[in-house]
Design brief:
By secondary structure, the chain is α/β, with parallel strands linked by helices. 29% of the residues lie in helices and 25% in strands. It has a six-stranded mixed beta sheet, sandwiched between helices. Strands 1-2-3-5-4 form a five-stranded mixed β-barrel. It has a two-stranded antiparallel ribbon with strand order 6-7.
Length: 308
């Protein structure tokens, strides 16, 4: 009996147990996972087998990374095999620094390069206030971009000049809370995105599209640049992170944690703690802000409690 022929493909969209898999020659096939569990995510390289006019995902190839969040109840995977994550936030309404920090920690844990983009540059007063709040992140070495995204209008030339070179030749997950401007940005980068989205939604029976699932779009014709649209989120659990590894995933905390007297310092109360010393130091610029330390302390308690 001849063994079934397995073909290579790329998962570009999914809804429940239905996936769109793109073949090397550009065809797109609806595929279903083998077995009860749906382990594939957008960005996965898979081996699939044809079955009439659809297919079956037989195996998910080894991943370079997987960007995900995890709370007490479930794990939510965004995408796999990423080069970078573009975290899009807005000057108004005021963004959550805790949520930003959590997304950055999740990226760091998977060794994925993060980029922060602050939208609504046209709201001068709100933007200046938000830009100042991000000074600690610029000091840590993160790339922070100003954007002014408007529906049905072009990106400002300066914004395009800053953003597009960072996306070129890479696969980028666009992440952010609802209302930050993700859909507007996607539609600027891929003018036919809504048409493609409607086609995918119809094919996967996912109904009217409101970005409830994750979708990969090619930015250029030779398919070397891709962006992945993801659903907005209000919470970002990090229960998969060991609390004792948390400091090493926060650049400002980790940098001074090397000065701690004890190797297993929690940076909360121990004598000779480099983090507490830096926090209380009067030197300028401050190595650790009060807000960043508060985020660390809250997260450490949250992650410690989740293990008992």
């Amino acid at each position: 009996m001849t063994a079934p022929t397995l073909q290579n493909g790329l998962v570009i969209a999914g809804h429940g147990r239905h996936f769109w898999v793109e073949t090397k020659d550009g065809r797109r096939i609806i595929c279903h996972p083998r077995g009860k569990k749906s382990q594939a995510v957008v960005g996965d390289r898979v081996l699939w087998q044809a079955s009439q006019d659809e297919g079956t995902i037989e195996r998910v190839e080894s991943r370079s990374n997987l960007f995900y969040r995890q709370d007490e109840i479930r794990t939510k995977s965004f995408a796999a095999n990423l080069d970078q994550v573009l975290i899009l936030i807005a000057a108004e309404p005021e963004f959550s620094e805790s949520q930003l920090a959590r997304a950055l920690i999740a990226a760091q844990a998977q060794r994925i390069q993060p980029i922060i983009a602050l939208n609504k540059r046209d709201l001068t007063i709100a933007f200046e206030r938000a830009w100042q709040r991000l000074s600690a992140y610029r000091n840590m070495g993160y790339t922070v971009l100003p954007l002014a995204l408007k529906p049905r209008t072009a990106l400002l030339d300066t914004d395009t000049h800053l953003l597009e070179p960072l996306l070129e030749g890479k696969t980028t997950l666009i992440l952010g809370p609802s209302g930050a401007g993700k859909s507007t940005l996607i539609n600027h980068l891929i003018p036919d995105a809504q048409v493609l989205t409607n086609t995918i939604s119809t094919a996967l029976n996912s109904g009217k599209h409101t970005t409830t699932s994750t979708t990969l779009y090619w930015v250029n014709a030779d398919k070397t640049t891709a962006v992945i649209d993801s659903p907005g989120f209000q919470e970002f659990g990090l229960h998969h992170i060991d609390p004792m590894h948390l400091a090493g995933l926060m650049p400002d905390i980790g940098k001074v944690a090397t000065e701690c007297k004890f190797y297993n310092c929690t940076h909360l109360h121990e004598p000779g703690c480099g983090v507490i010393f830096a926090l209380n130091s009067a030197s300028e610029p401050r190595q650790i802000s009060v807000e960043r330390y508060k985020i660390y302390s809250t997260l450490f308690a949250e992650l410690s409690a989740s293990r008992y």
